[in-house]
Fold:
Amino acid sequence: MFLHRHPRTLVTSEQLAAFVGYDIQRIAISLETFIEAELLERTQNPMHAARMYVLVLDGPQNGGILKLLKLASTRNGRQSILQALDTGGSQPETETPQRKPPLLKFA
Structure:
């Protein structure tokens, strides 16, 4: 979602990890996976650590990435994606957790 919202991003891997809230190793693996799948292009400048990342929306998946991004743009969609990717077999909560009523003080 970050790369969709910022389609031409000039950042270091560390900055990208900080922006999205994941550790640097996980970000590096994800970036390489997207590059290998031809969904992301990376340019490098030997004079600077920052790299330009360009999300390829019209790549070889015939618009599949656009469908995934549309699904990921909602909370329920993200939960569905996480459930589909979960190899551990655990199920996300399907119901909203019950909240405790607020405590009230009476004089």
